[in-house]
Amino acid sequence: MGSRFRRFAAFTTALTFILILLGVYTAAMGAGLSCGQQWPFCDGGLIPQTVPSFIEWFHRLVAMVTGFFILGTTIGAWKYYDSTRIRAAATLALVVLPVQVLLGGATVLIYGPLVQTAHHAAAMVIFSSLLATTLWAYEEPQQATAPATDSPGGYPSDD
Hints:
Layout: H1 2-28, H2 51-80, H3 84-109, H4 113-139
């Protein structure tokens, strides 16, 4: 199960990096303000009405999906690893996640350099924590899921 978790954690880390790039793109395009001061809604509802508001909406959608992957990574870290550092790194990402969501909302409702910096800093903490989780999971020895069956009867050999 360790290899599946490693791939899941690596995917979550990559998805988080893509989300950060999408957030930078959203900010660079000025799309973060395209929904008006509406959060979590956009253009008065759930469906965006313009291209810039679609960019902002898509960033929010990817953020939501990424959040569920972060939750899954944290659960997997606790389920499949006894390593304190793996569990702590994954848990840190999950603990910072609600703060990141609130800061994301604040970038729409308040909008200013301090809020944007805090939002990006929280993203870096989450990404760094997930990167550490993934790299440390790859350092851990592969855990055997079943004993080797070298003997004809299907039982482990005593060699």
